[in-house]
Amino acid sequence: MERKNAWESYDKKTLKKVDKFASDYIDFISECKTERECVDSIVNTIEAAGYRELQEVIRNGGKLGSGDKVYSVQMNKSLVMFKIGKKPVSEGLNILGAHIDSPRLDIKQNPLYEDTGVAYLDTHYYGGVKKYQWVTIPLALHGVVVKKDGTTIELNIGENDDDPVFFVSDLLIHLAADQMEKKAAKVIEGEALDIIIGSKPLVISKDKDGKSKDKEEKAKDPVKHGILNILKDEYDFEEEDFLSAELEVVPAGRAREAGFDKSLILGYGHDDRVCAYPSMMAMLETGDTDRCACCILVDKEEIGSVGATGMQSRFFENAVSELLELTEGFSELKLKRTLAASCMLSSDVSAAFDPTYSDAFDKKNAAHLGRGLVFNKFTGARGKSGSNDANAEYIAHLRDILDRNGVFYQTAELGKVDKGGGGTIAYILALYGMNVIDSGVAVLNMHAPWEAISKADLYESLKGYMAFLEGTGL
Q1: What is the CATH code for 6-102+268-470?
Q2: In the chain, count of helices (H) and strands (E)?
Q3: Nearest alpha-carbon partner for 387 in 436, 339, 427
Q4: Which phi and psi (to 5°) does residue 128 adopt?
Q5: How confident is the model over 247-258, as pLDDT tens digits?
Q6: pLDDT confidence bin for 218, thresholds 50/70/90
Q7: Could you tell me the fold of the domain covering 104-251?
Q8: To 10 degrees, what angle do helices 332-340 and 315-327 make?
Q9: In the sheet where 195-198 sits, what is the strand order?
Q10: Cβ contacts of residue 287 below 8 Å, gap of 6+?
Q11: Where in the chain are the domains?
Q12: Span 444-450, mean pLDDT?
């Protein structure tokens, strides 16, 4: 079964819509490179569209009814949105789920050191990365430093033209004979991914007798102390404050249109913000629905959906409980029935077929750029280990919805059998007994510092998510 290329169906009016949506998305992923930045931006956007904070409604003793829109944030890193439908919440939700964390380098808690006149920040990579891809490219520093008095300092260094950038060094080819003999996984070791942040020593002022006016220990690491002076003067924090910081190292620079025809977008963090952004926009652009519409945007998917901000936490379940209480009254049994009656698109990216590396793919069962929204009946590895395997009835239900709404879509597997595999948050939501399937956008260079997607697939994902939210339950 050959799936058609969406580009071939677009008229001039549609092409303008595709480019406009792509332009807005480029702004989003260029400005939102961490989970916190994503949540801040999304909250600003949805509040302007009339969404209210769920906790505020609770504090004010309010109630919710059809058409009301609320959201809840978990630790500034995860978010859930609800738009109440015409039918009772207990009859089930139509849920869009995606994650907003991406592979990166995290700054350790005791990171700053100097070695032979060069100052570094020690890192620990986050998520599945090819470590050699992170050397010799310009890097930016994003995140927060929280001081003991509760003051939060937000950092975003390396994105503006007059900002400094940072980088990880690599061995010059002239001396790399031994390095080039190593396997790719060992060419760059994890402990070698420390970023260079400076090389200018602090100038120690002296009195007329030639004695240093500063503390004697400053002379031991003059470059490090020069950096500490900059951190204090320009950002108002000290070395000890790294202990309570969350700083992420990401590729510097904006996402860009790619290709002579500008059909692609090259950028950092498509996995999985290319699903998160259209999910949010589908919630905003969809009108009144019969079933309650929901969008979950979570953290920690790249490391197993763990912790208080990952999908395995009770954050989502607690929010649905509060929603039931504010609409029709809560009970444990009603919560279980609500979740079991729900339908979900677990939106995460799929590997786009790459002709350069065709041996890794089963071509007829691979996702292809430009052919629309991707559905993975299952993910996992080898014998489908660790995956949710969607049932045939649910897939048929989705086919009907998408075909009636003119959405381009395709089905795929993540590479050849026994080549590898991957997972999403789908299996976690499936534990409630709801219908869940993996869906998303095809990505080239997945998990690399710069990934690529098709504008057409981005646009079809928006159309598909909107059609799903407007659909009935199974």
Answers
A1: 3.40.630.10
A2: 11, 22
A3: 427
A4: -80, 115
A5: 999 999 999 999
A6: low
A7: Aminopeptidase i, Domain 2 (2.30.250)
A8: 110
A9: 152-157, 139-146, 245-251, 104-115, 118-126, 195-198
A10: 470
A11: 6-102+268-470, 104-251
A12: 97
